[in-house]
Design a protein that fits this description.
This is SRPBCC domain-containing protein. By secondary structure, the protein is of the alpha+beta class.
Length: 159
């Protein structure tokens, strides 16, 4: 059974970016632009792949440091070009491990704001996840981790 997200447990982040929605969209969907995801100075040893269609997946080699590296990505659930991207966060044999029954759902919404873009990011925990499991996810600092990752995007696009 597909997970639901009525309880609205998770995190929300909002950022204003100094780039038009077209460029922010490209940063989220083009393998050549997804380098912002990595920590500065870290180079992945495996190529980033993007199959931008509902049911398609993106995978990228996340490099935190020399000792901590893993595959991450997602499976696209909704695509509204240059406006909205919804994906189940995770990768097969990666982190988080993609689990269609307990998928964490990420939503990126883009809106033009002046010459830039307002980006609202939301990560939802499925209703089927126990309160204990949800507490573990929220307690491990996913808000801080996603905040740092998205701040790299903000910095990259401000250049």
């Amino acid at each position: 059974m597909a997970p639901t997200y009525v309880n609205e447990r998770g995190i929300s982040l909002t950022r204003n970016l100094a780039a038009p929605p077209d460029l922010v969209w490209q940063a989220w969907t083009d393998p050549d632009y997804l380098v912002w995801f990595f920590n500065p100075g870290m180079t992945p040893s495996q190529p980033t792949t993007v199959d931008l269609r509902v049911g398609g997946a993106w995978r990228q080699h996340m490099v935190v440091n020399d000792e901590t590296q893993y595959m991450t990505g997602g499976v696209y659930r909704e695509i509204v070009p240059k406006q909205k991207l919804v994906f189940e966060w995770g990768a097969a044999d990666g982190w988080p491990e993609l689990n269609p029954d307990l998928a964490l759902l990420a939503t990126v919404q883009l809106r033009p704001e002046g010459e830039g873009t307002r980006m609202d990011f939301r990560l939802q925990l499925p209703d089927q996840m126990s309160d204990e499991e949800a507490g573990k996810w929220l307690g491990m600092g996913i808000d801080h981790g996603w905040g740092m990752t998205i701040d790299r995007l903000v910095a990259q696009l401000a250049k």
